[in-house]
Specification:
Number of helices: 6
Strand order of the largest sheet: 1-2
Radius of gyration: 19 Å
Shape: elongated
Number of strands: 2
Helix content: 55-70%
Structural class: mainly alpha
Strand content: 5-15%
Length: 125
Amino acid sequence: MLDKLPPRERQIVDLLYVNGESTVAELCEGLPDQLSGSAVRAMLSRLEAKGYVRRRHGGRGFVYAPAVPESKAKQSALAQLVRVFFNGSPVGAASALLGMSEKLDDQDLDELERMISEARKGRRK
């Protein structure tokens, strides 16, 4: 979903997920390269037309926010990552994560075990 966006538009949407609702000026400040306010407004208009961004009137003009729930965007990004780097194998991705187990404490591992158990129960229904 978001992977289909041009890099600049993706940067804007990413900033909105990180910072929450933002004005054009705030987005301009957060971008790695300086862009004019009119260039950012043009991209926001395209993003709004594509359904990725919504706007509302704020105290000093429009305030922009992501239109796609963050959970859905994360799921889409993860699916893309699994498809590209792990040949579509969720097991391969999970194995890579577990390969970083030195960064996981017992509580994290317990949570993963709980989630796997719930996933198994959900498949039996």
